[in-house]
Design a protein that fits this description.
Blueprint (H helix, E strand, L loop, with lengths): L2 H11 L1 E7 L21 E2 L2 E2 H11 L4 E6 L3 H8 L9 E5 L8 H10 L3 E6 L2 E3 L1 H10 L5 E6 L13 E2 L19 E2 L1 E8 H4 L14 H10 L3 E6 L7 E3 L3 H13 L8 H21 L3 H20 L3 H28 L4 H30 L6 H29 L6 H14 L4 H10 L3 H27 L6
Parallel strand pairs: 1-4, 1-6, 4-5, 8-12
Antiparallel strand pairs: 2-3, 6-11, 7-13, 8-11, 9-10
Helix pairs in contact: 9-11, 10-11, 10-12, 11-12, 11-15, 12-13, 12-16, 13-14, 13-16, 14-16
């Protein structure tokens, strides 16, 4: 059997379909019926819950969506038409024509699901990593439920919970969560095999109730339910959103999950702590990621001009401005990830602007140092150091683009080369040196900073060239 046929079969049997329930909970009950509860259009970091759910599923690899919508269908369609483009097919099935308590509705859905379906209500925010984990964990004939991380042991199911009574003899088939109780607090997001949705598995329901609870309980009794814990530390988190306080918690989780591809110590523990405040401001005023990139670049170039003045006070102010630019430079990626507006052009622009600013900083310092040494025998040394630093940075920029091309094509010659390149890329692209530059400026030692920058950039360029060269020469020519 050919590899392509095997790949298509694996895809068909996997999790590629999402079924969304904007009006009701997965385990029953309407959404937003009580005073203070929010509906599917409630905004979380500037994007409605429904739109955020669709875009997250799209980014996580879900290939088609079916929406069982109520009276809010037109509003949901309008919301989905705004903002980032939805590229996967979305089929709308009004519940007035396809009642959720009618077995024929689920039989119709089962015929369109190949393998597994993810069923979710629109009252929560979850990570892309959680959906990717669920897609990896599907097993033939098994359902999957997502257990929210409990604050304590849950002896009774909550309003949104569902009791799972797991026979002791079959506990080995279940991924255990922190709670040892048989009652697990399940999120409004489950994965069911198409076989459970067929008419043969339908059970008698009360009028107006969904059959999903019965499916899960029957599958659990047969040992065919896997429980996946939603863990923030693993990037597989789920946050219920029903009230305004839940919105604040969900937004905090979204901000806490932000992380760049290449991130150093200072970025993680300093720059990103400050950048969250700027990110909130930029989201409030509606700045695009590319506009934020340009703003950070402009501040960086002003800092470079300040270094060129050559005075102590100008150097300190320029170093502070460059640190500010480094903080704001974190915001473009944060805004892009929060609003689903990432783009290859935006990533390329960020990389180009960063390198232009870095080279301008090195040149500015060299010019400033030269101005203070005019007439001295070593007046040429800062100029040569600046040229070396700029040259090393330029070579690194070229090699980083080459490494990213290799990574995109999975063209690493060996895991060792990939690991070395990853370590070097994180250091080359890191903004950690902005804090070092501030320290050197405060102690009036910019000459030594430029010396280290020149040597370091050339050494990094050489090390990166060594790491990627074996893989680069094996890439097919365009």
């Amino acid at each position: 059997m050919s590899k392509s046929i095997l790949q298509r079969r694996a895809e068909i049997q996997g999790l590629a379909t999402g079924i969304l329930l904007p009006s009701v909970g997965v385990f029953g009950g309407p959404i937003g019926p009580e005073i203070g509860e929010l509906g599917p259009l409630a905004s979380v970091v500037g994007i409605g819950l429904f739109q955020r759910t669709v875009l997250t599923l799209q980014r996580a690899g879900i290939r088609q969506l079916i929406v069982l919508a109520g009276s809010e269908e037109e509003q949901l369609k309008l919301a989905l038409g705004k903002g980032p483009r939805v590229t996967i097919p979305v089929r709308w099935m009004p519940i007035r024509e396809f009642p959720l308590d009618d077995p024929r509705t689920w039989e119709s859905l089962a015929s369109e699901v190949h393998g597994f379906a993810l069923v979710a209500s629109i009252n929560g925010v979850f990570s892309r990593g959680l959906i990717e984990q669920l897609r990896r964990d599907v097993r033939e004939g098994q359902a999957i439920v997502v257990a929210q991380s409990p604050k304590g042991q849950l002896e009774q199911p909550t309003k949104q919970g569902v009791p799972l009574r797991l026979p002791a003899s079959r506990e080995r088939t279940v991924i255990q969560t922190r709670s040892s109780e048989s009652t697990v607090h399940v999120a409004e997001l489950v994965v069911v095999p198409a076989s459970l949705m067929s008419a043969a598995n339908q059970v008698a329901n009360e009028k107006g109730s969904l059959p999903i609870r019965q499916w899960i309980e029957r599958a659990a009794a047969d040992g065919r339910v896997r429980v996946v814990a939603a863990e923030a530390k693993q990037g597989t988190w789920y946050q219920e959103v029903r009230t305004l306080s839940d919105v604040q918690t969900a937004e905090s989780r979204l901000y806490g999950s932000l992380k760049g591809e290449f991130e150093g110590f200072v970025d993680r523990y300093f720059n990103r702590k400050l950048s969250r405040w700027f990110t909130r401001l930029f989201l409030a005023v509606g700045l695009s990621p590319n506009s934020i990139t340009a703003l950070a670049g402009l501040i960086g170039l002003v800092a470079a001009a300040g270094f060129g003045l050559g005075t102590y006070s100008a150097g300190v102010v320029a170093a502070v401005l460059f640190q500010l630019a480094a903080v704001i430079d974190c915001c473009d990626g944060e805004v892009a990830r929060l609003t689903f507006t990432e783009s290859p052009f935006g990533a390329w622009l960020d990389l180009v602007v960063d390198n232009v600013v870095h080279m301008a900083i090195f040149l500015g310092i060299a010019v400033g140092l030269y101005a203070t040494r005019i007439g001295q025998a070593d007046e040429w040394v800062p100029v040569m150091l600046g040229v070396a630093a700029v040259a090393g940075n330029g070579i690194c920029f070229f090699l980083v683009e080459k490494a990213q091309k290799i990574k995109a094509m999975n063209g690493w010659k060996s895991p060792t080369h990939a690991a070395w390149a990853d370590v070097l890329l994180k250091n080359v692209a890191s903004r950690d040196f902005s804090v070092a530059l501030l320290g050197f400026a405060l102690f009036n030692q910019l000459y030594w900073f430029l010396t280290f920058a020149a040597a370091g950039s050339l050494l990094f360029a050489g090390a990166l060239a060594w790491a990627i060269r074996p893989s680069a020469i094996t890439l097919p020519r365009p």
